[in-house]
Amino acid sequence: IGSKGFAKILYVNDYDIKNTIRIYSEQSGDRKKLNFTDCTNVALCQKNGIKDIITFENEFNKYLNCIPKIY
Length: 71
Prior knowledge:
71 residues, 35% helix, mainly alpha, two-stranded parallel sheet, 2 helices
């Protein structure tokens, strides 16, 4: 969340794409893996010091702290 309480928009640059490709390639042996967009989210989180994520995708656990689902 930005300084005024609004969500901060993160833009993707060439550096982020390279990290996304690295993350995507690292998990190629896994049966179920994150798609390219999810890997981009991981790369942006890592770059910006974001450690927690709300998601239904358990595969994020390898990279980020997934906030538990509330039903």
